[in-house]
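Anyone opening a protein record will find just a pair of labelled lines. A complete record is shown below as an example:
=====
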Amino acid sequence: MAVVDLDTLGLTCPFPLIKVQKKMAELSAGDVLRVETDCISATENIPNWAQKMQYPCQVKKIGSGRWEITVTKK
């Protein structure tokens, strides 16, 4: 299992979601993608997409206007 960090700070949706989709396609089952974002829309769009893909996903606020979204590839 690998943990991969993806910085999407400064990007607005749909670009954080597009980067997550591309990076997840490169990962193996069991790998975890840890996304840092400052886009409030990404805190909804990425988990909604992850749910459709049946990937476990968690959102955690890590600062003022910043979140960490963790997506695990099944």
Summary: Residues 3-72 form a domain with the Translation Initiation Factor IF3 fold (CATH 3.30.110.40). The CA atoms of residues 5 and 34 lie 5 Å apart. The chain is about 30% helix and 35% strand.
